[in-house]
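Possible regression after last week's pipeline update?

I re-ran a chain I had predicted before the update to compare outputs. Posting the input and the new output here so someone can diff against the archived version. Not blocking, just want to make sure nothing changed silently.
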Amino acid sequence: MADGSDETPDKSPDLAPDLAKEQPPDPGGKLRIDRWLWFARFFKTRSIASRLGASRKIRVDGNVIAKASQTVTVGNVLTFPQGRIIRTVQILALGDRRGPATEAQALYEDLAPPELNQPLSKRRGPLEGSPARREPGAGRPTKADRRAMERFLAEDD
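New output (post-update):
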């Protein structure tokens, strides 16, 4: 200090990037199931995925999970409802962000046959002989409607 030099440490800001944010998870890593479902774009918000995990409706390798904080790894098989469809997917990658749909589709392999990925109302096959459907909100059929349906169904026999 006698020579006039200032011995205070260098107070320049640390220019090193925040490594925790920029490094993708390692290939052998783990990720919360609600985050993975959100990254893979199965659910619009993470809170929806979290609620599904907490409601015990997700299976990981055949075992029911009780918490959305359950971790998954590459190779796990998930079974969960999505709307009126039961999805079965195998995790191929964990992902590090919620990216575009093409990036999200690379995170998993759909194990269900394509015809099972359609809503029940659009499937063909054994459900074709199901009872007549009414428009949502149309209410209960009247007596005349019921008799007309019975006549129509009797004509098929």
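Follow-up from reviewer: compared with the archived run. Residues 16-23 have pLDDT under 50 and may be disordered. Marking as no regression found.
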